[in-house]
Design a protein that fits this description.
The chain has helices spanning 45-48, 61-64, 67-72, 83-100, 107-116, 199-215, 229-242, 257-266, 273-281, 298-306, 325-332, 351-356, 386-395, 411-419; strands spanning 2-5, 17-21, 24-28, 53-55, 78-81, 117-119, 126-128, 131-137, 145-151, 154-158, 182-186, 219-223, 251-254, 292-295, 311-315, 339-342, 361-364, 367-370, 374-377, 401-405, 424-426, 433-435. It has 436 residues and is an alpha/beta fold. Helix 4 (83-100) packs antiparallel against helix 8 (257-266). Bound molecules: zinc ion (2 copies).
């Protein structure tokens, strides 16, 4: 097999890896890198013509955002993913197009993309020319999958993004009984010091902090990825209010999160059993909790902002690179009684990262906004931390070679160094090729 890394090498973003075996060429993921500037995988449109198929691990744009462009070049192959990945990708891609208006995407391309997806079940093997493929639950977001490739008598496993912890929504990644000589693993939190504190500890600190702000009559803004983190955070807050741990205040849900909620609800068979049972056995549907107030007009948004009483606002985007969250920060950020709570990964160069590192000012719509509200960061990550990544690697039977990708400078190297005593470990460079 030949591997070539067109993205996510020494970086987080634009995941796109070529796997070639015999006459078959497939891409594992095909994402964009969003940040100060937008970057695409380094595969040329000419090379795209020879790609037989694309397999997508999950709906985040750093894994699927380049697919509309591929179809816009006239490409007529198929994209393989789970059903929730297809549905969530549609939502995230249309939002991305609305906000960034990329010039490399055509209407015809988007229409072809709709017809080009083939939806696959977890665990069921399927064939793309010379290779066999299996999608395995990855625990990261709804529909997320690890990809297992069998070719030339060898097995390769690609994590996409992976979470080994159960969440309120999803089971943890299914890593039991995995066999493979080759592993391509993410390393978002692969650094030597990336060990998350126990979630219970984080949550109780967060709860305390939210309570204090509510008692002062302040507002809490929680920027969140539309898919995954947002639903998780909403479920946690709803639980706290129902159980009386938090005073009953409105939880305003603004932006794409609402659409993503509906997709979660009708794909509930991809969620944890406990959640399915809760919905089936009782009238209690946590997706439609009375504590959630949907914000879908400018008017309802200003009401949420101007309302005198305390409230919690959960809205996009997660790293504050745009979206409704900026409106709330612009209007509420100057009041020290309010609070901003970050719950997810904050990429380098994003406003979310700047605030997490202590910035006291943000530029929003060309205007400087002074930030007087407190900013706090809690690790409710949907990614594996370093101990989990170590567990993943040691659980794969027959493993020999590990390629460490999808990590910021330093993190991938640190993880590879740790692995090198037992495995052949590589941190590939962009466009580097390997025969495995
Ligand atoms: Zn992801
Ligand atoms: Zn990712």
């Amino acid at each position: 097999m030949k591997l070539k890394f067109y993205g996510a090498a020494h970086e987080v973003g634009r995941s796109c890896i070529l796997v070639e075996s015999g006459n078959t060429k497939v891409l594992l993921d095909c994402g964009v890198k969003l940040g100060e500037k937008e970057e695409y995988p380094l595969i040329s449109d000419e090379e795209l013509k020879n790609i037989d198929a694309i397999i997508i691990t999950h709906a985040h744009l750093d894994h699927v955002g380049y697919v509309p462009h591929v179809f816009s070049t006239g490409w007529t192959g198929h994209v393989y993913s789970t059903k929730p990945t297809f549905e969530l990708s549609n939502v995230l891609i249309s939002d991305y197009i609305r906000i960034s208006n990329p010039s490399n995407i055509t209407k015809e391309g988007l229409a072809r993309m709709q017809r080009g997806f083939k939806l696959m079940e977890y665990h069921k093997e399927f064939q793309i020319k010379d290779i066999k493929v299996r999608l395995i639950p990855a625990g990261h977001i709804l529909g997320s999958a690890l990809i297992e490739i069998s070719a030339e008598g060898k097995k390769l496993i690609y994590t996409g993004d992976i979470n080994l912890r159960k969440t309120r929504l999803l089971d943890s990644a299914h890593i039991e009984h995995l066999h493979g000589e080759i592993l391509l693993t993410e390393s978002t939190y692969g650094g030597d010091n990336d060990s998350f504190p126990p979630e219970r500890e984080q949550l109780s600190k967060m709860l305390q902090s939210i309570k204090e702000t509510i008692q002062k009559g302040g507002k809490i803004i929680i920027p969140s990825f539309a898919v995954g983190r947002a639903q998780e955070v909403l479920f946690i807050l709803d639980d706290y209010i129902r159980s009386g741990l938090l005073p009953k205040v409105p939880i305003y849900v603004d932006g794409m999160i609402n659409k993503a909620m509906r997709i979660h609800r009708h794909n509930v068979i991809y969620c944890r059993d406990e959640l399915q049972k809760r919905i089936l056995m009782s009238e209690d549907d946590p997706f439609k909790s009375k504590n959630f107030h949907i914000i879908d007009t400018k008017k309802s948004r200003s009401r949420a902002i101007n309302e005198q009483e305390a409230g919690i606002i959960v809205t996009t985007s997660g790293m504050m690179t745009g979206g409704p969250v900026m409106k709330y920060v612009e209007r509420l950020g100057g009041d020290p009684n309010n609070k901003l709570i970050l719950v997810g990964y904050q990429a380098e160069g994003t406003p979310g990262r700047a605030l997490a590192e202590g910035a006291k000012e943000l530029e929003i719509n060309g205007k400087k906004v002074e930030i007087k509200m407190a900013v706090e960061l809690y690790h409710l990550s949907a990614h594996a931390d370093r101990p989990q990544l170590q567990k993943l690697v040691s659980s794969i039977i027959g493993l020999k070679k590990v390629f460490v990708i999808h990590g910021e400078e330093g993190k991938s190297e640190q993880f590879a160094r740790y692995l090198s005593s037992k495995y052949e470990a590589y941190v590939p460079k962009l466009e580097e090729e390997f025969i495995v």
